[in-house]
Design brief:
The chain is an alpha/beta fold. It has 15 helices and 14 strands. Strand 1 and strand 2 form a beta hairpin. Helix 2 crosses helix 4, helix 5 packs across helix 12 and helix 7 runs parallel beside helix 8.
């Protein structure tokens, strides 16, 4: 049995100075809420006594309004279950509402997965079948039981100390990034980390370098933060620092993916790393390092984090557990330079506190027990195998496949409409994304498809590869 719908109270606006009687206002407000769908079929209204107390009116006034709603067959009495909205509203009472225009979704071509089932080749999600669910659920249960002994107070907005210690220790080994736990701020993921950094830096109106091609959500976040984004081309050595200095020497931010460039997969060369940090130091600018895919480097050991270098005191490192574990966990982190630590903690305390303490404690135990490192080793081996069977299954493609992180990059002819192809692919049950959506400058965009290998398995590989082979071969014959 459901409780009273609080929307019933929210839908009532009383104007005691108006000539309309209070009872008439209550009746009209509730009737409008029912007809507009704010109160849906079967919703329970508050009891007459409770609503009268909430509104500061006599019980008889509310009872009279309810009686009129019953007379119009809009609500009915359900005994101990209270007053409920009728399942069928009389057609004479229905007020037609104008159709809503479809919302503008500028990132729709990017095809970011939101909810529902994951399709083969879909970008942005880890394997759906290899999450260590049994271990994770046990640790979550342990953390939930431990919560009973904690005081009912707000958690540390910077993040639980035990998790920050584990993150700092892990980064020292895996990313060669030595930092103090007090430099770590726990977030709900990469996007909150980026928002935290942009808020703390307070550079609204300034120019910012972005990689071109680069992560569409990162680019849009910079625009929404009021920055003037300047697309900087990427080549085989990563972002072209010299071109950035030529186009926007006084930019205050550079957002980069130096470990595995998104989406091309190249690693920022040592010379470019040095040039980038030198530029930031000389121009009083900041480099935001998106640790895209973290240490999930399938060919050899992951490159050290840009923030691990000796001249990296102007680098803000953002990571998350979304790709290595699961986006459902909703945990990420920022490693801020000592110069900015106080500012970041202040912003986190007032605007962007850390996520659930229970999840943080479970993740800390997951890391301290060695489960995280074992999981990473398992996933690297699994993804390497899945990449190999995907490449083998796509031998009929009319293009040369290139590897790019956890995806395959499939170049297309210059005239190809990769966005249309991506939509057609979804109709066939596969979900590669268009490469052109990653470019900030449409005139520079190179058509292609990005196909993730994280959810290519033995039971779906043959079908998925056949559909993609046929789709692209049909394009070639046009």
């Amino acid at each position: 049995m459901t409780g009273p719908n609080p929307n019933a109270e929210c839908a009532i606006n009383l104007d005691r100075a108006a000539p309309t009687p209070i009872g008439e206002q209550i009746f009209a407000s509730l009737k409008g809420a029912i007809l507009s769908g704010v109160l849906a079929s079967g919703d329970r209204l508050p009891s007459g006594r409770d609503l009268a107390v909430q509104l500061g009116v006599a019980r008889g006034t509310v009872r009279a309004a309810y009686d009129r709603l019953v007379d119009e067959s809009l609500i009915f009495g359900a005994g101990s279950a209270g007053m409920r909205v009728c399942s069928e509203i009389p057609t004479s009472s229905i007020i037609p509402t104008p159709a809503m225009p479809p919302p503008n979704r500028p990132l729709l071509p990017f095809g970011r997965p939101q909810s529902g089932g994951v399709l083969p080749f879909q970008m942005g999600v880890p394997s759906q079948t290899d999450f260590p669910a049994k271990t994770w659920h046990r640790l979550m249960a342990n953390a939930a039981r431990a919560d009973r002994s904690f005081s009912q107070v707000y958690g540390d907005p910077q993040g639980e100390q035990e998790l920050r210690v584990q993150i700092a220790a892990h980064l020292a080994v895996s990313r060669q990034l030595r930092c103090h736990p007090d430099q770590v701020v726990v977030t709900s993921g990469y996007r909150q980390g980026l928002a935290l950094a942009l808020t703390a830096l307070q550079v609204t109106g300034a120019e910012a370098w972005i990689e071109d091609p680069g992560y569409p959500l990162g680019r849009r976040a910079m625009e929404l933060a009021g920055l003037c984004v300047v697309p900087i081309p990427v080549d085989s050595e990563g972002i072209c620092v010299a071109e950035g200095i030529r186009k926007a020497p006084d930019a205050k931010i550079a957002l980069v993916t130096p470990g595995q460039q998104a989406p091309l997969g190249v690693c920022l060369s040592p010379a470019r790393r040095l040039a980038l940090t030198d530029w930031a130091a000389g121009r009083d600018a900041w480099v935001i390092e998106d640790d895209y895919l973290s240490e999930l480097q399938l060919d050899g050991r992951a490159a050290p984090a840009l923030a691990s270098g000796p001249d990296a005191d102007r680098v803000i490192h953002i990571g998350s557990f979304s790709k290595t574990m699961s986006p459902v966990i909703g945990v990420g982190f920022v490693v801020c330079p000592p110069l900015l630590a106080t500012r970041f903690i202040e912003v986190a305390s007032t605007l962007s506190p850390a996520p659930s303490q229970t999840i943080q404690r479970a993740l800390a135990e997951f890391m301290s027990g060695g489960h995280y490192l074992r999981h990473l080793r398992k996933m690297k081996a699994l993804y390497t195998f899945q990449r190999s069977i995907a490449i083998e299954g796509l031998t009929e493609l009319p293009a040369t496949i290139e590897t790019s992180g956890l995806a395959l990059k499939i170049p297309l002819l210059d005239h190809a409409d990769d966005k249309r192809l991506a939509l057609r692919a979804r109709e066939l049950g596969i979900a590669p994304v268009p490469l052109s959506a990653w470019y900030a400058s449409p005139s520079n965009a190179t058509p292609g498809l990005l196909a993730s290998i994280t959810n290519i398995r033995a039971d779906n590989c043959e079908t998925a590869c056949r559909e993609l082979n046929e789709l692209l071969n049909a394009l070639l014959k046009q």
